[in-house]
User: Which sequence fits this backbone?
């Protein structure tokens, strides 16, 4: 049977990073400084340390300044809020990203609320969630924006298409649904309480899976030809003789690619897009902060 087209997020992300890097040079020539991203990490969570390191390197490779703030796990909420205030006031900082999750003694929502909305390149501030909901210019969370870029490149106009988003998180599911709605898709948000999920997914021309359950979505849930975006990154238990399990998405990739029209792989699909979009958002923030028009078509 025909195999689905593989949507190559890694290649797409590489192209986006290249373009952002060129625009960052042009920005520096006009503004007399590079776009700057501050990344704040509290504690020593190994996965977060890797993410923060990758974000810093990606910034430098895209001709941007990276300001890393690695704070001890016992940092108080007051000290973290004071750092955010200093970064808000620093004209060389265009974007502020506080890596989540934060230690339990710190209120994540309070920290996100303290970031100036115009430096909130994660798009997590309620002001930016509200702007997205009402169609105003703001910042959109990186993962759903990256998914949207891949969908529109693949499908062009999404008007009238049936889209099912599985997952309702503030970071992926809800903003993804808003973006699809703004693009005139007919949008359903499904979640753990949805009745007959397979039947709901079978209606979809576009499936966005963001549930965090390894290979939950099976081929017989899919409408033939559907475009499938798999946001899940799940590590399976290690097989005998191996120290790490395989990474899989929320979609059973091999069988789904017998039915879907196009599908993102895991790894190499949505994941690489997230950092590329973070750079894109930082570039846009830099332009807005300097009163310049952001580059078109990014
Ligand atoms: N932790 C995992 N992903 C993200 C992200 O996109 N932004 C932030 N701030 N923290 C994260």
Assistant:
């Amino acid at each position: 049977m025909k195999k689905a087209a593989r949507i190559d997020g890694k290649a797409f992300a590489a192209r986006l990073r290249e373009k952002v890097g060129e625009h960052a040079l042009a920005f520096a020539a006009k503004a007399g400084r590079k776009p700057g991203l501050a990344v704040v990490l509290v504690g020593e969570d190994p996965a977060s340390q890797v993410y923060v390191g990758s974000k810093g390197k990606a910034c430098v490779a895209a001709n941007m300044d990276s300001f890393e703030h690695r704070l001890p796990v016992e940092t108080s909420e007051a000290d973290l809020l004071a750092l955010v205030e200093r970064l808000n006031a620093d004209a060389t900082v265009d974007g502020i990203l506080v890596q989540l999750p934060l230690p339990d003694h710190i209120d994540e929502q309070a920290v996100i609320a303290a970031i100036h909305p115009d430096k909130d390149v994660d798009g997590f501030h309620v002001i930016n969630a509200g702007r997205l909901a009402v169609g105003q210019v703001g910042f959109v969370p990186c993962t759903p924006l990256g998914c949207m870029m891949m969908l529109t490149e693949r499908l062009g106009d999404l008007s009238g298409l049936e889209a099912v988003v599985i997952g309702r998180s503030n970071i992926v599911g809800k903003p993804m649904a808003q973006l699809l709605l703004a693009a005139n898709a007919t949008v359903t948000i499904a979640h753990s309480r949805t009745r007959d999920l397979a039947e709901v997914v079978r209606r979809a021309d576009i499936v966005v899976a963001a549930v965090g359950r390894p290979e939950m979505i099976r081929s017989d849930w899919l409408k033939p030809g559907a475009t499938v975006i798999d946001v899940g990154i799940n590590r399976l238990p290690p097989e005998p003789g191996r120290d790490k399990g395989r990474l899989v998405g929320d979609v059973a990739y091999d069988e789904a690619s017998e039915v879907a029209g196009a599908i993102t792989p895991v790894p190499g699909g949505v994941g690489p897009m997230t950092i590329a979009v973070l750079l894109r958002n930082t570039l846009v923030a830099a332009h807005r902060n300097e009163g310049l028009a952001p580059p078109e078509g990014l």
Observations:
- The radius of gyration is 19 Å.
- Residues 288 and 294 are 7 Å apart (CA to CA).
- The chain has two domains: 30-118, 142-271.
